[in-house]
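User: Hi! Is it possible to get a structure for several chains at once, not just one? Here's what I have:
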Amino acid sequence: MKTEIEQRVEKSYAKQNAMKNIGAVITEIGSGTVTIELPFRTDLTQQNGFIHAGIVTMIVDTACGYAAYSLMPSTAAVLTVEYKVNFISPALGDKLIARGRVLKPGRTLMACLGEVHAVTDGKEKLVATMLATMIARDQVG
Amino acid sequence: MKTEIEQRVEKSYAKQNAMKNIGAVITEIGSGTVTIELPFRTDLTQQNGFIHAGIVTMIVDTACGYAAYSLMPSTAAVLTVEYKVNFISPALGDKLIARGRVLKPGRTLMACLGEVHAVTDGKEKLVATMLATMIARDQVG
Amino acid sequence: MKTEIEQRVEKSYAKQNAMKNIGAVITEIGSGTVTIELPFRTDLTQQNGFIHAGIVTMIVDTACGYAAYSLMPSTAAVLTVEYKVNFISPALGDKLIARGRVLKPGRTLMACLGEVHAVTDGKEKLVATMLATMIARDQVG
Amino acid sequence: MKTEIEQRVEKSYAKQNAMKNIGAVITEIGSGTVTIELPFRTDLTQQNGFIHAGIVTMIVDTACGYAAYSLMPSTAAVLTVEYKVNFISPALGDKLIARGRVLKPGRTLMACLGEVHAVTDGKEKLVATMLATMIARDQVG
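Assistant: Yes, the chains can be modeled jointly so their relative placement is included. Here is the combined structure:
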């Protein structure tokens, strides 16, 4: 049976057209941690054939955002205040795995650390690291 | 007639499947500045119906990247080292306009500043600000 | 006569031992903008004889922080949530000038842009650019 | 006996007037990791009596910089390209400990992750997290 956190995250995620569009799926929802996977697709690439930096950012932003969301009161919504991403190796492989986790839960703001790895033949390689700030907002409606 | 810079940027941009995929187009290429526009589409949204932060990032990253590329030798390729984005208001409107410009050209590294505005009925509103580092790499092949 | 904003900023600044310690002074306080100057001193340098990146950061963080503070209610305190700094040329010259300004005032959070220039014989050169998030907190006591 | 890395780092560190000025000391030099400690001092504080964000940044920047330097060829110099810092809790305690480590060594660029903890009665609390880019430059002279 699904936890309350899993239900909340999945309900919100289902409304994310952009994530559906690129074929990303949530594969793990913990308390302060979320994992998202993205199978490689050639329609998501930049000029060198790597997954576009913006797409890499999108999956790890979403992983960090829901990691923060998982620690917020059930009436809150989550928004990204800002993030920073370092790109460490090309986003090439069978799939990308983005893992987000909350560094320290706060009442309003949550600092999160995220990592994206490329998986090729079962081996992981670090692609990008994110340091982000998420905010809890009162849900509208 | 197109300048050498315009030709180089357009040739590289044509290989960016991800940018084509979301419907973004380059509307201005200068010396150290590039503008990209993205008409609003509901398949690019997050859970609140705004354009996803990752998509906002993608267009301003690309604008900053080509702004840097426009100042590089014609044999170089451009890669994103890292960026930081602050999200200032919801990405909602008829379209988004991302403008990137080089703060100071360097031989290898270029610091760039980017802005995304949402345009509604011809009026612009600041959506996001990016501070990025681009690198010139020797072209492979 | 001093404005209410100038009085508030100067009162808070007077409590900043670290800023006094390095010899930095506020030279301009506007509505959403603050300027701080730091005369060059050899006891603030790193291994190459440039002003240390941390000191460059300190003056532009403070300029951005008070720029945000100048737009907050008089009962609020300001704290730095996070910042990002790109270092563009060596911090060398007669003095450094740090200018901070609010990109868009928010009720709680304020995104700020800051710049540091080195001044040599009256000529300015860009040293660093900051993109920061400030938060308004209820004053304690 | 000191390793070649320890000797190089210590020789460079000895030239850092700013670090001497604030009383920071290197306490560990590994291969891709460096630790710096800063005893609390009231002349390093901001308006609330916490160690100034710029000083917190200074020690973790230096820890990250030397972590990168430890993996560079002995003829190289290290410079900070950019960094981002999230401030998570007040810099208050008996001392601060800054730990920097290289995420992935590169020929020219190194992405580094840094953390600052405040130590009070032997207990550590996370104060700040840094994500930084360092560059190897040919030594001048």
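Chain A has a mean pLDDT of 96. The longest helix of chain A spans residues 53-69.

User: Great, thank you!
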